[in-house]
UniProtKB/TrEMBL annotation:
Gene3D superfamilies: Ribonuclease Z/Hydroxyacylglutathione hydrolase-like. PANTHER family: EXODEOXYRIBONUCLEASE WALJ, METALLO-HYDROLASE YYCJ-RELATED. InterPro entries: Metallo-B-lactamas, RibonucZ/Hydroxyglut_hydro, WalJ/YycJ-like. This is MBL fold metallo-hydrolase. It comes from Candidatus Geothrix skivensis. Pfam families: Lactamase_B_2.
């Protein structure tokens, strides 16, 4: 199994999981052209993408959906509420024959992959993260959550690879130039995860099985890669876990497998 962060940040998000000649995308907040180009840069074949899973309707996660519906045959995996919210926000219609209905807390089989959406605290219609299990390996992609709930922690235990939000440094955000309402939204319990909250959650879910952690959705205005890395390293020091940072413009690819 291969994982790739094609883009991660406030300007667009897209993750890819590939195995056995097929790829599942999680979110599509960058253009279809960029998705294809970045897959190819990483040595992954764009023609192997078969489905797109949507976490929620915010534009930095779904901006390419209209073009994807017109120019590909990819299936769209989303909850009923997210489908409705995305169709309204993007002015598109997801054909019923291309829609795979997801439901938070209900695992589904996608050609032998176990795909489990689970609920997140975020200011969207029905936000979810995804835990994927295949070939004895398990990973999760978890961004856009305001605080680390016990439900989220339950689904992040016993993983091989964890992609986890480290959106902002609280002091940088409070002292920064964002307008007060936006600061309040980000800091709220349905906003985004800070470095400190990320580290708290990482400490709760760490297990000896964990081999790779990717910090994702870093704010370019309210965080610094060194601050996010330091917060995670404090938790992971003395463990065999390899720590990586996903970027907005520079794609990242990692092979992963079970312990």
């Amino acid at each position: 199994m291969h994982y790739a962060a094609l883009a991660s940040g406030s300007k667009g998000n897209c993750h890819a999981l590939s195995e056995g000649g097929r790829t599942l995308l999680i979110d599509a907040g960058i253009s279809l052209r960029q998705i294809r180009q970045r897959l190819e840069v990483l040595g992954l074949r764009a023609d192997e993408v078969q489905a797109l899973a949507l976490t929620h309707e915010h534009s930095d996660h779904v901006a390419a959906l209209g073009v994807i519906l017109r120019r590909t045959t990819w299936a769209i995996l989303a909850t009923r509420e997210t489908r409705q919210a995305v169709e309204w926000a993007q002015g598109v219609q997801i054909p019923t024959e291309r829609w795979i209905e997801a439901e938070a807390g209900r695992a589904m089989d996608w050609g032998g992959w176990r795909v489990l959406p689970f609920a997140l605290p975020h200011d969207a219609a029905d936000p979810v993260a995804f835990r994927i299990e295949t070939g004895g390996g398990a990973c999760a992609v978890v961004t856009d959550l305001g605080h680390p709930t016990e439900l989220v922690a339950d689904h992040l235990r016993d993983l091989d690879l964890l992609v986890l939000e480290a959106n902002h440094d609280v002091d940088m955000l409070r002292e920064g130039t964002y307008p007060p309402p936006l600061k309040a939204r980000i800091l709220s319990r349905v906003g985004h995860l800070s470095n400190a909250a990320m580290a708290e959650l990482l400490a709760r879910v760490y297990s000896p099985r964990l081999r790779q952690v990717v910090l994702a959705h870093l704010s370019e205005s309210n965080n610094h890669p060194d601050l996010a890395r330091f917060a995670a390293e404090e938790v992971l020091r003395g463990t065999p876990v390899a720590l990586h940072l996903a970027h907005q413009r520079q794609p990242l690819a990692l092979p992963w497998a079970s312990h």
